[in-house]
Design brief:
This protein is of the alpha/beta class and 218 residues long. The protein is built from 8 helices and 8 strands. The chain has one domain: Dihydrofolate Reductase, subunit A (3-Layer(aba) Sandwich), CATH 3.40.430.10. Strands 4-5-3-2-6-1-7-8 form an 8-stranded mixed β-sheet. The longest helix is centred in the middle third of the chain and has 12 residues.
């Protein structure tokens, strides 16, 4: 069975992964981009936007690996766009323009039905109203022997973890861990408080300590 993978998911030291007040001008919420600063300078990110240059070190390797080799993606509705409630029309087709970076079927969790959207480059957005397990079943069927990437956002990751899924989490430090959902349902963080400095909901992903921090603790 293919694995459900969370990769390159930015988490602040106090356990938050998104800013508040997401809208068209702030896809990651207010101050949300600060959490993903490690990603923006990479060659992988710049090439996604048709730009040249960018760094090619460890961060770029992680960024590249976190976007390739998956057979399907699962996205929360906010990862698809800022539209809330029933779809007013079908004009919104995602944050990424005509060619999103997924290149495989991407299953979008929503309470409101919508016809699938086929995009350039192999991405197809399929809207799932049956909940996380329905989306996971569809994604695993589409992925075949490849893994399924859980793209977020925060609430979607927490739904899967609290719902009993065991998820392999890779952090921006390159450190990987496999954890059962029970640790997350008890509110476990990476040993730091979950007091919000900015953001809207704790990610509770215990993979945020850097490799160097883990070496110091060892």
């Amino acid at each position: 069975m293919s694995r459900l993978i969370v990769a390159n998911f930015g988490v602040s030291i106090d356990g938050f992964s998104a800013g508040t007040s997401q809208d068209l001008q702030n896809p990651l919420g207010l101050r949300g981009p600060e959490i993903m600063e490690w990603f923006f300078h990479t060659r992988t990110f710049r090439s996604m936007h048709g730009l040249e240059g960018g760094e090619t070190g460890i961060d770029d390797g992680l960024a590249r690996d976190g976007l390739t080799g998956f057979g399907a993606w699962i996205l929360g509705r906010n990862m698809f766009g800022p539209v809330r409630g029933p779809w007013p029309d079908e004009s919104w087709k995602g944050w990424w323009g005509d060619e999103p970076p997924y290149h495989v079927p991407a299953y979008v969790l929503t309470h409101h039905a919508r016809d699938p959207i086929t995009m350039a480059g192999g991405t197809e957005f399929i809207f799932v109203t049956g909940g996380i397990y329905a989306a996971l079943e569809l994604a695993r069927t589409a992925a075949g022997d490849k893994d399924v990437r859980l793209g977020g956002g925060v609430a979607t990751v927490r739904q899967f973890l609290h719902g009993g899924s065991s998820t392999r989490c890779t952090s921006p430090s390159g450190r990987c861990c496999s954890v059962p959902a029970s640790r997350f349902s008890r509110g476990s963080t990476s040993g730091h408080s979950a007091t919000p400095a900015t953001g809207r909901s704790p990610a509770n992903v215990p993979c945020t300590s850097s490799w160097r921090e883990r070496r110091r603790k060892a």
